[in-house]
Write a structure and sequence with these properties.
The chain is mainly α and 195 residues long. It has nine helices and no strands. It has helices spanning 3-27, 34-41, 45-51, 55-78, 84-94, 103-115, 119-142, 148-166, 174-184. Helix 1 (3-27) packs across helix 2 (34-41) and helix 2 packs across helix 3 (45-51). The model has no long low-confidence stretch (mean pLDDT 88).
Length: 195
């Protein structure tokens, strides 16, 4: 395969991944077929199975890539602040971009649901979450936060839960949620992020 062929192959693969994310958000995991994703990507149906072993493999790869992209934004966010409470404020404020019925929220929700029935996807999603928690825990630990791993796990789970809950209750904005989360990480006397 020559360089042009390889480049075309990468382009087709990327188009399939983008199409899969769009379709997961629009139709749900079970509503995506080889035909629909191929049509959306503007390629022949045979190319879906050339690049991916199955539609499920494509959907998993697309969802995990989308989750990694969102998780990867943590680095740039943490570079903006030094104080853990400020980091929490930035993370929670960024949730206002996710309404629960936007494409990213829908992909996360659909991936979590599909992972309950697919052990391989569950492992991939767990790996993405572990990477997020490890980055956050390392950052928190470097700033003297007690139990940084447990704190990172609870913060991550809270953020995930809030993204999903926003579809049911759009009033769960950062303005409402942030004071509660900040109180959770404060100790009596007002010292933040210490136990």
């Amino acid at each position: 395969m020559g360089p042009k062929s390889a480049e075309r192959g990468r382009e087709v693969r990327e188009r399939l991944l983008v199409a899969a994310v769009e379709l997961i958000a629009e139709r749900g995991w079970g509503g995506v077929s080889t035909r629909t994703v191929a049509e959306r990507a503007g390629v022949g149906a045979g190319l879906v199975h050339y690049h991916f072993g199955s539609v499920q493999e494509l959907l998993s790869a697309a969802a995990v890539a989308a989750m990694r992209e969102v998780g990867g934004s943590l680095e740039s966010l943490l570079e903006q602040v030094e104080d853990p409470a400020d980091a929490l404020r930035l993370m929670v404020s960024s949730l206002d971009d996710y309404t629960g019925d936007d494409a990213v929220s829908m992909v996360f929700t659909e991936a979590y649901l599909a992972a309950t029935r697919d052990a391989q996807l569950r492992d991939q999603v767990a790996e993405v979450m572990a990477e997020f928690r490890a980055r956050l825990a390392g950052w928190l630990g470097a700033r003297g936060v007690a139990e940084p791993e447990a704190t990172a796990a609870v913060v991550g789970a809270s953020i995930d839960g809030l993204v999903m809950q926003r579809a049911l209750d759009p009033a769960l904005t950062s303005e409402v949620v942030l004071p509660v989360l900040v109180r959770m990480v404060q100790t009596p006397g007002g010292a933040r992020w210490r136990s």
